[in-house]
């Protein structure tokens, strides 16, 4: 798959550097350039692209404004934000960005970003071929670990642990603290997650063992065994029944 891209940045050296790095990737085809948000919109009305690399801090129409404007396009590009700071990661998450790159952009990190774009485009193509729409664009979450911001797929999260006004997302490889209350995630992710305890929200597809009888009901997700609150047992049983998962007493 060869993809066309747009780079929007008000600093020409930044455009030149990113264009050079992208040009080294054989998956990249045509590279369009725009020195402002307004110029990017004009270009996109003439030349639809597969992906857009947007600087956040541009005068006038900034990267986030530009991303919102793109939502009105019939063919919306995959979004990658490129910035020198980490403060916009949460807003990028809200805009369903495929990735969030920090300047200076490293070659290997950019390569992973292009891989995510290609995966998203292939999934979208599968929808048009008759695949389920829910598989089209996996929801991406901006997380920070060791001072580095990255995007992970929601379906990588096995369970969520409440930590005050924050939530810790546990994946197979690591855990990430995000500035989102677990109550908000419970509401937003109700399609695939279920509350089992005041401190835990689990991903139904990742459940490997369910024990709801006895004095200490629990569920197992990966290597973690999590307690189940007696108060939440009825709702949990009902949810598992609807998901065709039969609890073991």
What does it look like?
The protein has 249 residues and is an alpha/beta fold. Helices cover 30% and strands 31% of the residues. A five-stranded parallel β-sheet has the order 2-1-3-4-5, with helices on both faces. The chain has a five-stranded antiparallel β-sheet with strand order 10-9-8-12-11. It has a three-stranded antiparallel β-sheet with strand order 13-14-15, with no helix packed on it. Helix 2 runs parallel beside helix 3. It is elongated. The chain starts with a strand and ends in a 7-residue tail after the last helix.
Q: What's the quick description here?
A:
With 249 residues, the chain is α/β, with parallel strands linked by helices. 30% of the residues lie in helices and 31% in strands. It contains seven helices and 15 strands.
Percent of sequence in beta strands: 25-35%
Count of individual beta strands: 15
Gyration radius, rounded: 21 Å
What is the first-to-last residue Cα distance? Answer: 49 Å
Which spans have pLDDT < 50 for at least 5 consecutive residues?
A: 130-136, 244-249
- SSE ordering: EHEHEHEHEHEEEEEHEEEEEH
Query: Roughly what is the average pLDDT, rounded to an integer?
Result: 85
**What structural category characterises the helix and strand content?**
alpha/beta
Determine the number of helices (DSSP H or I, runs of at least 4 residues): 7
The best one-word shape is: elongated
Main beta sheet: 5 strands, parallel
Sheet with most strands: strand arrangement: 2-1-3-4-5
Which bin fits the share of residues in helices?
Answer: 25-40%
């Amino acid at each position: 798959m060869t993809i066309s891209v747009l780079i929007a940045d008000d600093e020409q050296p930044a455009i030149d550097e990113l264009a050079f790095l992208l040009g080294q990737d054989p998956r990249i085809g045509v590279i369009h350039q725009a020195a402002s948000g307004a110029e990017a919109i004009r270009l996109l009305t003439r030349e639809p692209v597969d992906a857009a690399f947007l600087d956040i801090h541009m005068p006038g129409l900034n990267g986030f404004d530009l991303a919102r404007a793109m939502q009105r396009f019939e063919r919306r590009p995959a979004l990658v934000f490129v910035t020198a700071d980490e403060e916009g990661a949460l807003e990028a998450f809200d805009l369903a960005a495929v990735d969030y790159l920090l300047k200076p952009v490293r070659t290997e990190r950019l390569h992973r970003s292009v891989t995510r774009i290609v995966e998203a485009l292939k999934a979208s193509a599968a929808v048009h071929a008759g695949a389920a729409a829910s598989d089209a664009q996996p929801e991406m979450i901006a997380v920070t670990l060791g001072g580095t911001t990255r995007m992970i797929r929601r379906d990588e999260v096995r369970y969520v642990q409440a930590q005050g006004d924050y939530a810790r997302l546990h994946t197979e490889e690591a855990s990430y603290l995000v500035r989102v209350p677990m109550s908000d995630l419970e509401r937003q992710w109700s399609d695939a997650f279920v509350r089992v305890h005041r401190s835990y929200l689990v991903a139904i597809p990742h459940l490997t063992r369910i024990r709801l009888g006895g004095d200490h009901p629990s569920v197992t997700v990966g290597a973690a065994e999590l307690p189940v609150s007696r108060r939440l047992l009825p709702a949990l049983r009902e949810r598992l029944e609807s998901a065709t998962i039969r609890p073991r007493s």
